[in-house]
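Per reviewer request, we include the raw input and output of the structure prediction for the construct analysed in the revised manuscript.
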Amino acid sequence: MEPKNKINDKFFERASRHMTWCNIPVKSKYTPEDVAHLDYKDDIGEPGEFPYTRGIFPEMYRTRLWTMRNLVGFDSPKRTNERMKLQISEGATALNLIGDLPAQTGIDSDHPIAEGDVGLEGVPLCSIRDWDICMEGIERENISINFSNYISPLLAAMIASAEENGCDPKKLRGTFLNDTLAFLLTNYYPKMMDPFDIGHRMTVDTVLYCMEYAPRIYTLSTGPEGLREHGASAMQEIAFDFCIARHWFKEILKKGGDKVHIDQIAPKMGFTSRVGVDIFEEACKYRAARRVWAKMLRDDFSTENPKSCTYKVYALTMGSQLQGKQIQNNIIRETLQTLAAVLGGVQGIHTMGYDEPVCLPTEESSRLAFRTQQVICYESGVVNVADPLGGSYYAEWLTEKLEKEITGIMDEYKETIANKIVSGELFQVLRNEAYAYQKEVEKGERPIVGVNCFTVSDEDDRQPEIHRADTDAVGEHVRNLKDLKRTRDINKTAKSIENLIRTTEDRDANIFPALLEAAHDRATTGEMMGAIRMGYNASYDPFGMIEYPF
């Protein structure tokens, strides 16, 4: 029997967890005294002015809205093309494409170990032909594409396909993650980057090549999804992002020599972050990040271009905060996450489908994700004012607190970040954070609605329609790949692959032109990755299951 005073107790219930999502203790109120030491001009500033705390544009969304794009990629290039066209019809202002697990790890869909993973969690892309199918009927020069992959041969195939379809690479717009340190951290298959020189070479050479020949593509976007989703706090996420960016800046400048300056690289640096449900912490995270980034570029790299100091970020709602129980509650969580990103002044947003914990988004959940952004954008009024949280005693205190936390973590990791990722040490840090969070949930110390409080029976927990991979579409894609290998000019392909191996062996050369040539000659991404590996005296196939085919 329920206690007689249960309703009465609930009526007088009070907040019991007096801290942010990332466990920063907070007071019951904040006053002018908490921010009296802050100087408005030096510490906060106007929107569009150093240190960009209040946003990177003077009027923010009044002059340019964030790009609305949701992640897409499943089954086959053909099916993904259909979904991208649907997204455009639903109001997407840009595209966000992700490869499947084999594509992420640089192997072809017909590799023995790829079976079962083809098209399961992204689009299978193996060649220029796949890109032709994937982008059919989409005006490539008129839409920005965020390509969530790290393997340079995939970008080479994308550009080669665009060229053969009459597009000027200098007019292509978008973002390519290209952060091979992130590849190791997300732990898809680390041996693909063994030795790490392979990943290092791809990242640096791609940036240097595209800086001249595809200048509108952001060819370095750090902020691996593994950070927040594997347990990192908001402060760790930004700090590790910036440490990784510092590493790449130094490596690119080293290889570029006198021909490359920081102000050629930094303006095209982008970030991909996750945004959680704690509205104030997440919004202030972006305010603090802009401040830290601006000061770092000014003080550590002596930048002369104001655009180099602007932190440009694409925010994805945090999937690990979504729950498989009472799954419709995720609609509310994603609304809060999306609102936090807008209040934080980000440049692009991906609102996940509420069914993220159980499957790829269905058409219904994808549409609702767009509508979430659109309602916030067109109905809520939050876009009318740049940095609407600016001047709040709590927001300004929390922004400064996060700034100090971020810089403190950076001081510890900024010179050693690459080694700590390659060694697995940083991954262990994330695991420890994730474990601590899970224990809080299991003990009931952190309330999660529908999971450890306000639960319902399994019978009453209504589950959504589940998206399942289309085996016929996957089969058609694999047949297309085998047909490409059978009908191409094998001598021409072999010649370009041999050239890629020789180019890779020359450590001073840039491998991207050789990758582009190989893509035009119908080499697959798996074959190109194998050639790069051979150029570093590694085995053609990291799994040891197939032989060099030429």
